[in-house]
Amino acid sequence: MSVERVKRKGGEVVYRVRWREGGRNRSRVLGNKRDARDFDAEVRRQRRTGTLAQLDAGTETLNEYVTGTWWPAHTAHLAPRTRENYAQHYDRHLAPALGETPLRELTPELIARWQAERLAAGIGPEAVRKALAVLGGILQRVVEAQRIPANPVRLVRKAKRPVRPEVRPLAPATVERMRAALGQRDSTLVSVLAYAGLRPTEALTLRWGHVRDRTLVVNASKTGRTRTVRLLAPLATDLAEWKLASGRPSDGGLVFPGHDGDPWTREAYKSWCRRTFNRARRAGGVPKATPYTLRHSFCSLLLAEGRSVI
User: Fold this and answer.
1) What are the angstrom distances between the C-alpha of 101 and each of 17, 27, 63, 257?
2) How far is the C-alpha of 115 from the C-alpha of 132, rounded, in Å?
3) Who has the most CB within 10 Å: 260, 296, 305, 309?
4) What are phi and psi of 212, to 5 degrees?
5) Does domain 62-155 have CATH number 1.10.150.130?
6) pLDDT of residue 9
7) Hey, how many other C-beta atoms are within 10 angstroms of the C-beta on 105?
């Protein structure tokens, strides 16, 4: 280890600290002699304590860590839709502005400025909050790997959450008017959403083996858990008629296959919402609703039945 004085071509004087680690010659340039000596002393101290490798902790960029470590090691257990959402938030909001920043330089001030700039650029507060949550999750893994001492995102005050529009559940009479405007497959799908409270993704992955005499067995990809939903008599009738019309498929068959018989793609679902569901919504006299609104409608049915909120 040594400290040497270096005079650059422009006349600037700097100080280079040299040391050897892991069979490699290493060096770092500092602007003044005092800082160089202090750094040289720190190198000597860490060599004595066996922590010399920590000098490089956090020097890789956010992009390098995400692509090399976080994505392959920490997202494999996530649902495909969640992985896709994380990738979109990272690629759209985080990588362009922060991706080339070394991990140790991601300070609360820098992240707060990034948030303010995104909001000023017209990005919605909810999108910014979600991107910040992704960044916080990434940096928490960095902390656990001892690359940085603390998670800077925890010290950033998040953008205010926008006021959510009031949820307006649909009455069964309205749901039935919507169903009357649809073909049998789509009508039965709306019935499952409204009278069993499934998430759209859960309904589209439902298989006939999950349809029991009095219950539906739901595999929730969002939570990774299985739950059982009581099968209301009108819904049981709708499903029985749809199974008969489908040619009595096996237990492994999808209850709602796509038009090609395969599971729905995300694009196919968006197209169904835009065309089929909106047509039914207008037929039911509903000014604004999404398929997820039907899940709220099912919750309202349970409350009207006397169930507790919990």
Assistant:
1) 24, 21, 8, 45
2) 8
3) 296
4) -100, -175
5) yes
6) 84
7) 14
Alpha carbon separation from 289 to 31, 36, 186, 264 (Å, rounded) = 62, 65, 16, 21
Contact 202, 196 (CB under 8 A): no
C-alpha 89/C-alpha 92 separation (Å) is: 5
Tokens of 216: 């539906």
The torsion angle over the Cα atoms of residues 45, 51, 55 and 58, rounded to 10 degrees, is -150
Distance CA 190, CA 292 (A): 10
State the span(s) of the chain assigned CATH 1.10.443.10: 172-304
Six-digit token string for 230: 């009581």
Mind listing the pLDDT tens digit for each residue in 49-98?
A: 665 555 566 678 999 999 999 999 988 888 888 889 999 999 999 999 99
The vertex-264 CA angle with 230 and 227, nearest 5°, equals: 25
Give the integer Cα–Cα distance in Å for 111 and 116: 9
Q: What is residue 22's predicted lDDT score, i.e. its pLDDT?
A: 62
Nearest residue to 139 (alpha-carbon basis) of 155, 158, 157, 152: 152
In angstroms, rounded to a whole number, what is the distance separating the alpha carbons of residues 49 and 159?
A: 43
List helix spans (H) across the chain. 33-49, 62-65, 71-74, 80-89, 95-98, 108-120, 125-144, 172-180, 184-196, 200-204, 233-245, 266-272, 278-283, 293-304
Q: Which two tokens stand for residue 73?
A: 């090691």
- For domain 172-304, the CATH architecture is Orthogonal Bundle (1.10)
Backbone region of residue 182 per phi and psi (left: phi > 0; alpha: psi in -120 to 50; beta: other values):
beta
Instruction: Mark 117-130 as b/e (b = at least 16 C-beta within 10 Å).
Output: ebeeeebeeebbbb
d(C-alpha 101, C-alpha 99), whole Å: 6
